[in-house]
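Collaborator request, handled under Task 6.
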Amino acid sequence: MPDVVGFAEIENRGVLVKLLNSTLLRKYGYRIVHQDSGDRRGIDVALIYRSSSFTLESKSFVVPRLEDGPMATRDILHVCLKDNDGHKINFIVNHHPSKYGGSAESDRNRIAAMNTLKQICDSLHAVSDDHIIAMGDFNDVPDSPAFVRIEGTLVNKGTKLHDEGEGSIRYEGKWELIDMYLVDPESEDLTEMEVCRIPFLMTWERKHPGEKPLRTYSGPRYIGGVSDHCPVLLWYFGDNS
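Structure tokens returned to the collaborator:
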């Protein structure tokens, strides 16, 4: 089972409590890090971790800001966890603003969110050399302008997969990779990213023939899926330092 799971789109803490207490996950000792965000639709980010693998060192919820003030969007969640050998890893969970209203018109919002992510990383680098793993739904593919903001600070583990045509969502019959991991440069060779296309999470699309993730709702109609995004996995091999 994964030691850490980040959620880019959770309605509330109750969803996580039910997930962990009413399924087989109750056997694995997960703890929750979550708070309600200022998002107008009630969307939050969250993180769970196995208490047998990590202890919680600190947590913070950072609101992305434009020049004229904070945005009514999802927080960026920073959680510092310490493993059983005393090593600390910083996990940062993101769900950057969408392209609602048009890609060009909304670019400034995603750039602002990426600037906030960079500020968090710069603050961490200033006080320690602990590893950083940023994750989530960035609502942009790896070669989008917003990712220029974190060049030299974080390495995008999704770039190679994107160049190979891999994706986490399917839109108009085309796969796009907008869910990914970014890691500190020292972790680049210690990690490997994978998009998981698990059969029970997928469905067949008729309009654009092919498989796509089975979403929870289609408009107002409940269809019983988990998400319209595929989960992404990061293998972390550690460095024993």
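The cover message to the collaborator said: "The domain at 4-236 is CATH 3.60.10.10 (Deoxyribonuclease I; Chain A). The CA atoms of residues 129 and 219 lie 45 Å apart. Please let us know whether this matches your experimental observations."
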